[in-house]
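Input chain follows. Return structure tokens only.
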Amino acid sequence: MIPRYSRPEMARIWAPENRFRIWFEIEAHACDAQARLGVIPAEAARAVWEKGAFEVERIEAIEREVRHDVIAFLTNLAEHVGEPARFIHQGMTSSDVLDTCLAVQLAQASDLLLEDLDRLLSALRARACEHKRTICVGRSHGIHAEPTTFGLKLASHYAAFRRARTRLEAARAEIATCAISGAVGTFANIDPFVEAYVAEKMGLAVEPISTQVIPRDRHAAFFATLGVIASSIENLAIEIRHLQRTEVREVEEYFAPGQKGSSAMPHKRNPILSENLTGLARIVRAAVTPALENVALWHERDISHSSVERVFAP
């Protein structure tokens, strides 16, 4: 993630420490389920929780040699757990960990975005009511038309973000699924109870039918929803940018004390926040097409989706 455009709360979700912590929890809960089934010793499952640890730098060093991130993680985890580590990951495949972890991260990110939408809706509602009778010029084709009110303008954006919140709630529910079904998704080497157990512990639903990976139509719908929300954000940002032009000057972004507008022209008060939002909306929408293309994977799985998601998901 680019620090300039990343909030600490969102950056933490996609940081390696959080990703490996989720991997650990998936593996540890799977061991608990296996112990309940009598597949592995109960003391081995306890040892995972009691001794389990990892170091990001060590995992990265191992991965440079083995060229496999999950194996690198499991190797580092085994260095801490010791002999009982041979029971970790039993019957599982890497995608069980990777896809379930991604579902958790996307759910965490969705929760943060839903909170943001709530704050935005509250602000838009308050300002729409405040300017309910503030007369301004209505425009069609960018040309003066009939009068309207600034409150009505904001109410229109409020309605759009209400729809956005409904869509994001649905997208979050669809993306938050767990798959612990083993190689090619047949449960040949792992009991479905493990999947159900891990799903409950991680706050996810069970993926009804998976191959070796969670079906990517879920992810496509999720990122398409983000693309629509980004377009609504850009719609509001463009309205502000147009109305802040010097020859219009009907509205203005907040300009903080001490803020500077130009290194050459100190009088300028530029709509940089709205411009940044316009640009970032393009980045969000750019993820939609790759997400759609990730739906068509070979047979029970390939990893052509993996590199794409590692780039645009954060």
